[in-house]
TrEMBL record:
Native organism taxonomy: Bacteria, Pseudomonadati, Pseudomonadota, Betaproteobacteria, Burkholderiales
InterPro entries: Bac_transglu_N (IPR013589), Papain-like_cys_pep_sf (IPR038765), Transglutaminase-like (IPR002931)
Organism: Bordetella ansorpii
SMART domains hit by this protein: TGc
Protein's UniProt name: Uncharacterized protein conserved in bacteria
Annotated Transglutaminase-like domain residues: 159-221
């Protein structure tokens, strides 16, 4: 499946910003099952490219002149192969051992409440794709999809207590569960296409299974990831995988708007 993608992120400020530095994770990962045929990032300043510890292609944007708006436009075409039960085969760029994905973060910290939820959902643990799907089902039953209740700082324990959240919250709770069992898991950011020309920035998860390796699961949609999912970045949580992240001096109040358009062509 070929995806034609247009993604615009625009920041506006109520007063001038004197300095901005941003890390952009807006380039598809060079995984075996997806290939960028063409890809371009347009930004209001020069971009410095590098590959981070997770194997993500990143760009650094630095603006040191006064500005009241930042617009970042991404356009490109990517070819994505289907995945069988979400299994990601082949080598991939990564400089971290598997154990690094067992380490909890502030957003994915487990506690006894999460541990008990996980035991109830998967009493025999996580060893098979069916177990992974059972955990996803339990999370979606417990945490209803509802935008506006949480934000990017909401941790897994708060998500479980609130019972509402969005895709990133489902992923953080999923990761808290699997890491609590000592199973490697990682956060995935990217794009998701559905029928009816609906497209969006999205988040899902990878989990390492003994007989399958990395298996990619869309918790929110209760399905294994496949050729409708374009992978931009993987990391331990949203903070390290977010498409755009940065700091600034000045600017007053900030507003952000995001537009994603995807045109899919079957091969």
């Amino acid at each position: 499946m070929k995806h034609l993608i247009k993604h615009t992120t625009r920041y506006r400020y109520t007063s001038p910003v004197s300095y901005t530095i941003q890390t952009l994770r807006l380039t598809p990962r060079p995984d075996d099952h997806q290939r960028a045929l063409r890809w371009h990032i347009a930004a209001p300043g020069p971009l410095e490219e590098q590959v981070d510890a997770y194997g993500n292609v990143t760009h650094t944007l630095v603006l040191n002149k006064p500005h009241s708006e930042i617009e970042i436009r991404v356009t490109g075409q990517i070819e994505i192969d289907p995945l069988r039960d979400g299994q990601i085969h082949g080598g991939e760029e990564s400089r971290l051992p598997l154990h690094a994905y067992c380490v909890p973060t502030r957003l994915t910290q487990s506690d006894e409440t999460i541990a008990q939820f996980c035991r109830d959902a998967v009493p025999d643990g996580l060893t098979r794709p069916a177990d992974v799907m059972a955990l996803a089902e339990a999370i979606c039953e417990r945490v209803a999809y509802e935008p506006g209740i949480t934000d990017v700082t909401t941790a897994a324990g708060e998500v479980l207590a609130l019972g509402h959240g969005v895709c990133q919250d489902h992923v953080h709770l999923f990761l808290a569960c699997v890491r609590g069992l000592g199973v490697p898991g990682r956060y995935v950011s990217g794009y998701y296409y559905t029928a009816g020309d609906v497209a969006a920035s999205h988040a899902w998860a990878d989990i390492w299974l003994p007989d399958a390796g990395w298996t990619s699961l869309d918790i929110t949609n209760r399905a294994f990831a496949s050729d409708r999912h374009c992978r931009l970045a993987v990391a331990r949580d949203y903070d390290s995988a977010s498409p755009v992240r940065g700091v600034r001096n000045g600017g007053g109040e900030e507003s952000m708007s995001v537009s994603v358009q995807i045109d899919v062509r079957q091969q």
